[in-house]
Specification:
This protein is 52% helix and 13% strand. The chain is an alpha+beta fold. The longest helix has 22 residues.
């Protein structure tokens, strides 16, 4: 698990924890649990919402750590400025990753689905939150792997499809060199995430 701290941001949202899980076997149950938690009331609902208080990101649609970090930072800024477009800072990450402004599409596409086998789990919190990795592993049945493993998980064809990059001149030009094409796609996608809050 990786952790980042942004000292210039409000303490309650200054720390980010990121973990990559592969061989996830409980995606459908996890998705159902998130939906159920949103509907529960009272102390039971509060406890269940806290247990799943993460962004569960479809790992195969993330090009690089910078791509994800850009979306996370945009979500934190929106929270700090009181401009969230979604209900939570964690769902805002999914919105920031999606090339359109459709929140439902963002959650369906970039969030956990019944078929997810690789997930990036993100928790934004104060630096005081303890045992984050244990909390993540308590809800995700999968193998925690180094973040470098993301490079072998990314589905570049799906990324290009969602961002409509197949006709992009720079991508076409680099198509004969897969490594170069991935660099170009990552740069375009990361820039799009960074610019999204400015253009909407």
């Amino acid at each position: 698990m990786l952790s980042f701290h942004y000292a210039h941001l409000p303490t309650a949202i200054s720390t980010v924890h990121v973990a990559l899980y592969t061989s996830v076997s409980n995606a459908a149950a996890l998705r159902a649990r998130i939906v159920r938690a949103s509907q529960l009331e009272g102390t039971e609902g509060d406890a269940e919402r806290e247990a799943v208080n993460f962004a569960f990101v479809e790992a195969r649609l993330i090009c690089s750590p910078l791509h994800l970090q850009t979306a996370v930072y945009q979500a934190i800024l929106a929270q700090a400025q009181g401009t969230l477009r979604t209900k939570t800072v964690h769902s805002e990450i999914l919105w920031a990753l999606n090339p359109t402004n459709n929140i439902t599409e963002a959650i369906r596409r970039y969030g956990v689905s019944d078929a997810s086998t690789s997930l990036i789990v993100v928790r934004i919190s104060s630096p005081d939150l303890k045992d984050v990795e244990a909390q993540m592993s308590a809800v995700v049945a999968g193998t925690l792997v180094p973040s470098d493993d993301l490079a072998r998980i990314t589905d570049w064809t799906s990324v290009k499809k969602h961002y409509k990059l197949n006709g992009e001149a720079a991508v076409k030009e680099a198509a004969k060199d897969p490594a170069r094409e991935q660099v170009v796609v990552n740069e375009i996608v990361t820039s799009s995430v960074a610019m999204k809050s400015v253009t909407t």
